[in-house]
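Design job #97: recover the sequence.
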């Protein structure tokens, strides 16, 4: 008996000791959790039930030079319903009037919303979707609907806001305007001005507290943000939407006519370097064109004969020739080692001056001129090109600028024929904008300015930063040389023998150079031979205001491929329409040429309007710029919606002008 009692007592002591130790361990753990790891577990609990979310700020607006919006941020709202927070009585009283209000605004029947709300109530859904992508005015209206006007707790209203980027003017300069994205790690990517000036446009993120209400679903707590987001700054670009519209449609029409692969056009203000228009269009498999890539900035290719200007300037500066130096074109064929340089004119041009060789674009003359004068010292020619900044990037803020190629003797690819081939634009590479920058320098009497796409950064009406004219090279050549080649560039268009004479107009002056470069010329398969057609120059020829380059890749050879035929008309169309819409009063008397200006299609419409001067003409199918010019010259106030060609006009053809004080044009 005693033994049994002793055994029981021993067991009792062991159990008691174990329980005591267990209690001590529990107490220790509680103390540790409460005082040592308390903050950690509190934070973990909060993280699982409440979480701080960032709020993206509104990006700044991007404007054209006249204040038109090129890109803007717009708030869009999603409306959801928390059925749990709403009392049964409030729900019963308000479900019908709320559904009626939603039906009236959103278009679906009231029964649809009644069914949706009742289902959410039965299922205790705390995150039922009501509507997406509402604008600000719709969001304000929804907040005042029955039940929702009681707020997030009693009314169950959940508002989610997001910011989207829109381009009010559609496809105008879309690739140059660009975009910017950010990934989950905060890394930014994108193209165009949006990416280049993202640090100004982004703004500062805000913060908002949200509560977890279901798996993967978070509901904002209260109406207010913890930290309000700060909107980004606005940017004023150099883009002129009128010139941009002209350039875009002129390029598009030519690409379609020649079934070309892609092309670009740039218009730049000569004195300041401000880019007034930049259009890049590529072809889809279906034959449609859109802003595919920024070819003007990013695509470096062999420029062909537009590079003859650089070679001529180099030779004149080094005084190895003068414009009157006579060169034998060798019947249009000149063999150097195992290669033959050919002129486009069979039989050549005979013995001609260097200046005349430029005007008719003789390849043989230029190959002989550069090879024979520099063959004993090729470094001299290349150094001269490099002194004109032709081997350097423009260092643009826009990402992806193409790398110019100017080989030096001894570099990979240099050979005994390199001087001859470089002379007329082969074995070198430049982007359209780099070529234009040099032509612009010649128009500027030798001063090379950096192309610029942004004028200033603003916060409301306050200027944060201004971007001024920047000179890259004060003098790419002497004023004497500049004057000589300026006259030759003018002759290319004005002289009957000039390669650009087909573009000549007595109503306005232009100066420039044609270019036709072969692609895949090393291939022996003639079907693989492609062309790059270009025209670079400026206008007016005297006191130039704008420089312009047009480059079109791979036109259909059966339709045409010479620069004067393919790219030249785009240059002319831009020049003549800019003349018609810009106040170039010092260069042209608009009244004098009023009845005969512009191209044939414009003249036809203009003549029709003048003939029926008492009636409103039909402008459907015309470009917006042409239609505006015609109607405003008839004394009609014009309002334009959209961009492109005229799709509808609010006042019909034949209406008496006295009854048409204002007309609205809807553009496609």
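Job complete. Output follows.
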């Amino acid at each position: 008996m005693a033994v049994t009692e002793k055994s029981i007592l021993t067991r009792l002591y062991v159990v008691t000791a174990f329980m005591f130790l267990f209690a001590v361990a529990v107490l220790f753990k509680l103390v540790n959790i409460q005082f040592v790891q308390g903050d950690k577990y509190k934070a973990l609990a909060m993280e699982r039930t409440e979480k701080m979310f960032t709020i993206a700020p509104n990006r700044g607006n991007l404007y054209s030079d006249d204040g038109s919006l090129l890109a803007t941020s717009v708030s869009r709202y999603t409306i959801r319903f928390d059925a749990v927070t709403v009392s049964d009585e409030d729900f019963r009283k308000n479900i019908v009037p709320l559904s009626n209000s939603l039906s009236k605004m959103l278009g679906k029947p009231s029964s649809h919303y009644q069914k949706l709300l009742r289902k959410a109530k039965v299922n205790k859904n705390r995150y039922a979707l009501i509507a997406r992508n509402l604008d600000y005015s719709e969001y304000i209206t929804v907040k005042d609907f029955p039940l929702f006007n009681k707020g997030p707790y009693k009314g169950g209203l959940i508002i989610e806001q997001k910011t989207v980027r829109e381009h009010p003017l559609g496809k105008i300069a879309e690739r140059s305007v660009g975009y910017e994205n950010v990934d989950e790690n905060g890394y930014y990517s994108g193209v165009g001005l949006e990416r280049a000036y993202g640090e100004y446009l982004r703004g500062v993120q805000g913060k908002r507290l949200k509560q977890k209400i279901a798996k993967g679903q978070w509901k904002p707590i209260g109406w207010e943000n913890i930290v309000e987001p700060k909107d980004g700054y606005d940017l004023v670009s150099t883009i002129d939407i009128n010139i941009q519209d002209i350039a875009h449609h002129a390029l598009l029409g030519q690409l379609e006519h020649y079934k070309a692969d892609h092309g670009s056009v740039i218009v730049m203000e000569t004195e300041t370097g401000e880019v007034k228009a930049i259009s890049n269009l590529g072809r889809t498999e279906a034959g449609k064109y859109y802003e595919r890539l920024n070819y003007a900035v990013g695509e470096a290719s062999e420029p062909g004969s537009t590079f003859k200007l650089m070679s001529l300037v180099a030779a004149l500066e080094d005084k190895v020739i003068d414009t009157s130096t006579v060169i034998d074109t060798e019947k249009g064929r000149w063999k150097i080692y195992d290669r033959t340089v050919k002129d486009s004119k069979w039989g050549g041009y005979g013995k001609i001056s260097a200046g005349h060789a430029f005007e008719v674009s003789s390849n043989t003359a230029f190959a002989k001129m550069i090879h024979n004068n520099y063959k004993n010292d090729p470094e001299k020619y290349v150094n001269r090109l490099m002194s004109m900044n032709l081997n350097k990037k423009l260092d643009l803020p826009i990402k992806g600028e193409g790398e110019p190629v100017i080989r030096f003797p001894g570099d990979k690819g240099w050979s005994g024929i390199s001087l001859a081939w470089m002379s007329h634009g082969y074995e070198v590479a430049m982007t359209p904008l780099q070529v234009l920058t040099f032509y612009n320098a010649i128009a500027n009497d030798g001063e090379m300015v950096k192309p610029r796409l942004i004028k200033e950064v603003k916060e409301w009406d306050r200027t944060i930063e201004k971007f001024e004219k920047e000179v890259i090279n004060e003098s790419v050549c002497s004023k004497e040389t500049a004057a000589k080649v300026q006259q030759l560039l003018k002759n290319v268009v004005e002289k009957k023998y000039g390669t650009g004479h087909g573009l000549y107009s007595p109503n306005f002056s232009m100066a420039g150079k044609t270019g036709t470069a072969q692609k895949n010329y090393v291939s022996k398969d003639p079907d693989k031979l492609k062309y790059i057609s270009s025209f670079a120059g400026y206008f007016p020829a005297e006191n130039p205001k704008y420089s312009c380059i047009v480059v079109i890749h791979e036109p259909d050879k059966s339709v045409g491929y010479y620069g004067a035929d393919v790219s030249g008309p785009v240059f002319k169309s831009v020049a003549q329409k800019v003349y018609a819409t810009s106040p170039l009063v010092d260069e042209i008397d608009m009244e004098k040429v009023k009845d005969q200006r512009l191209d044939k299609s414009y003249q036809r419409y203009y003549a029709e309007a003048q003939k029926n001067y008492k009636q409103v003409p039909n402008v459907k199918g015309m470009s917006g710029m042409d239609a505006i010019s015609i109607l405003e010259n008839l004394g009609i106030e014009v309002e334009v919606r959209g961009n492109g060609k005229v799709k509808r006009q609010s006042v019909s053809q034949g209406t008496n002008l006295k009854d048409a004080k204002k007309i609205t044009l809807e553009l496609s």
